[in-house]
């Protein structure tokens, strides 16, 4: 059975674990470097990227996470996507694993947070489904630019990038863990299995 | 489909992003930056921390919007602000300046002694205080998207926070073992909306995120509340009324993440300087208690 870790420094890690267990995967919380041992993949949840970054630095997780990402699948949702990026347009701890530039709080404040449907070809192909994906954005970042081996997975109608893939590294601006739709988690498992 | 804002999922969702974190009271931009630097997941902007509201007496109202805006400019983390219980115009003002969460708070002087704000009327989400499951589910019924157990704000005494968390979480444990035919009587006895009683039983937890508040002053206090089963912690006077706010703030953030690891808790509890002086909540006259406000 697949064993997926969820970085549990701060944020909605419990929601990811519920979803992983629902689709039949072992899931465990990761707070210290030794908790990465034996995992097949890692999810970095939504939360506050500054809080998560500071705690990761203090508990010596930066290098172990960077090493883990070289040989395993990692998926960052919202704050997690920011943490995976190379550049967040401000000074805060980042893993720099993905060739993406992000802009935090790109849609404004909480009253501007929104839900919308996305058609994501790669996701539909991987899960052999046809219905759109309902995405929940909360004080969300956008992916301003992708470079190197990173590619765009999904854009809003106005062209703004909200999901990107680089090898087995996945970044989404939105929160699949807040929905009842398991397709994104299933898609991530397919990356972890590769 | 067109994008939708202000939905129930959006309101509850922001609170879910705050889980496992510490929300700190700050009275100016400088304190807000110290809080963010220490790893706070959000700040509560207010003119006076509860300990000072107690000391000053008089009527405590919503803070000056200009002061809240300066704090919003100073940090990238979410900013919350307080309005008085029932004062829906203060809430409209806070919504219009773009705060991320409104706390309809018993720490301010209530504007209505019978009714709370109908929070479903707003796009901005609300957090409210509770002492027991009935109060929590009434507030959620009115549209609160996040709860906090009240404790006794501005005391530095954790005893009331423990009492309220044990009451709420104990009732949920009780509810989980009840038969469906017992739920209406539970709703009646607790003054709780029946539909939310059913939902709480089905979920096995509060239907929205539930933090602890009111009297948390040390990393051990924060970890105690987490081990009791809350989702995160508000710290009001406990940080900026202490000897070394930056150090204490960072220590409390770490204690909430590593709440189950006593060796880390020991490490972060070292050399924090003076804790806030504190007031014994048990010896406080009834008239000075803030937690009894709310209906």
Describe the 3D structure.
The complex is a heterodimer of chains A (194) and B (295). Chain A contains six helices and twelve strands. Chain A is of the alpha/beta class and 194 residues long. Chain A has one domain (3-192): Rossmann fold. In chain A, the strands form three sheets. Chain A has a seven-stranded mixed sheet with strand order 2-1-3-4-12-11-10, with helices on both faces. A three-stranded mixed sheet of chain A has the order 5-6-9. In chain A, strands 7-8 form a two-stranded antiparallel ribbon. In chain A, a hairpin with a 5-residue loop joins β10 (151-155) and β11 (161-166). With 295 residues, chain B is α/β, with parallel strands linked by helices. An eight-stranded parallel sheet of chain B has the order 8-7-6-5-4-3-2-9, sandwiched between helices. In chain B, β2, α2 (29-38) and β3 form a beta-alpha-beta unit. The mean pLDDT of chain B is 96. At the A-B interface, α1, α2 and β7 of A face β1, α1 and α12 of B.
Entry summary:
The complex is a heterodimer of chains A (194) and B (295). Chain A is α/β, with parallel strands linked by helices and 194 residues long. Chain A is 28% helix and 30% strand.
Please outline the helices and strands.
The complex is a heterodimer of chains A (194) and B (295).
Chain A: E1 3-7, H1 13-22, E2 26-30, E3 41-44, H2 49-58, H3 62-71, E4 73-77, H4 79-84, E5 85-87, E6 98-103, E7 114-118, H5 121-127, E8 133-137, E9 142-146, E10 151-155, E11 161-166, E12 169-172, H6 183-193
Parallel strand pairs in A: 1-2, 1-3, 3-4, 4-12, 5-6
Antiparallel strand pairs in A: 6-9, 7-8, 10-11, 11-12
Chain B: E1 4-5, H1 8-18, E2 22-26, H2 29-38, E3 42-45, H3 50-56, H4 65-74, E4 79-84, H5 88-97, E5 101-105, E6 126-130, H6 133-142, E7 146-149, H7 159-176, H8 183-190, H9 194-203, E8 209-212, H10 219-228, E9 233-235, H11 237-240, H12 245-257, H13 262-268
Parallel strand pairs in B: 2-3, 2-9, 3-4, 4-5, 5-6, 6-7, 7-8
Helix pairs in contact in B: 2-4, 2-12, 10-12
């Amino acid at each position: 059975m697949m064993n997926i870790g969820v970085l549990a420094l701060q944020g909605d890690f419990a929601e990811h674990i519920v979803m992983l267990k629902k689709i039949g995967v072992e899931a465990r919380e990761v707070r210290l470097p030794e908790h990465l041992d034996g995992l097949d993949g890692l999810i970095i949840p939504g939360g506050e990227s500054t809080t998560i970054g500071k705690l990761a630095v203090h508990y010596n997780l930066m290098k172990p996470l960077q090493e883990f990402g070289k040989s395993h699948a990692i998926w960052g949702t919202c704050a997690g996507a920011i943490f995976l990026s190379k550049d967040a347009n401000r000074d805060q701890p980042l893993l720099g694993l993905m060739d993406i530039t992000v802009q935090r709080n790109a849609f404004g404040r909480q009253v501007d947070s929104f839900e919308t449907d996305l058609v994501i070809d790669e996701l539909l192909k991987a899960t052999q489904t046809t219905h759109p994906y309902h995405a929940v954005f909360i004080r969300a970042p956008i992916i301003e630019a992708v470079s190197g081996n990173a590619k765009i997975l999904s854009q809003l109608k106005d062209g703004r990038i909200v999901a990107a893939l680089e090898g087995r590294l996945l970044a989404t601006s939105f929160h699949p863990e807040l929905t009842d739709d398991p397709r994104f988690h299933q898609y991530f498992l397919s990356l972890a299995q590769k | 489909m067109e994008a939708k804002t202000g939905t129930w999922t959006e309101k509850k969702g922001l609170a879910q992003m705050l889980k496992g974190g510490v929300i700190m009271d700050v009275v100016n931009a400088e304190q807000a930056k110290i809080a963010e630097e220490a790893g706070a997941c959000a700040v509560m902007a207010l003119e006076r921390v509860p300990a000072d509201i107690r000391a000053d007496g008089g009527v405590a109202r919503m803070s000056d919007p200009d002061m809240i805006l300066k704090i919003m400019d100073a940090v990238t983390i979410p900013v919350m602000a307080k309005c008085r219980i029932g004062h829906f115009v203060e809430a409209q003002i806070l919504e219009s300046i773009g705060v991320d969460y409104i706390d309809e708070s018993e720490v301010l002087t209530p504007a209505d002694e019978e009714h709370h704000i109908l929070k479903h009327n707003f796009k901005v989400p609300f957090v409210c205080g509770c002492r027991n499951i009935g109060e929590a589910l009434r507030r959620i019924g009115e549209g609160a998207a996040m709860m906090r157990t009240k404790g006794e704000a501005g005391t530095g005494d954790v005893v009331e926070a423990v009492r309220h968390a044990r009451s709420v979480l104990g009732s949920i444990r009780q509810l989980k073992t009840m038969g469906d035919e017992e739920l209406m009587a539970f709703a009646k006895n607790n003054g709780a909306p029946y539909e939310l009683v059913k939902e709480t039983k089905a979920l096995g937890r509060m239907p929205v995120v539930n933090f602890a508040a009111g009297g948390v002053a040390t990393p051990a206090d924060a970890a105690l509340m987490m081990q009791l089963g809350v989702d995160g912690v508000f710290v009001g006077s406990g940080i900026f009324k202490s000897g070394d706010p930056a150090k204490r703030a960072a220590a409390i953030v770490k204690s909430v993440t590593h709440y189950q690891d006593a060796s880390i808790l020991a490490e972060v509890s070292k050399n924090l300087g003076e804790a806030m002086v504190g007031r014994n909540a048990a010896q406080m006259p009834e008239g000075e208690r803030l937690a009894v406000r709310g209906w």
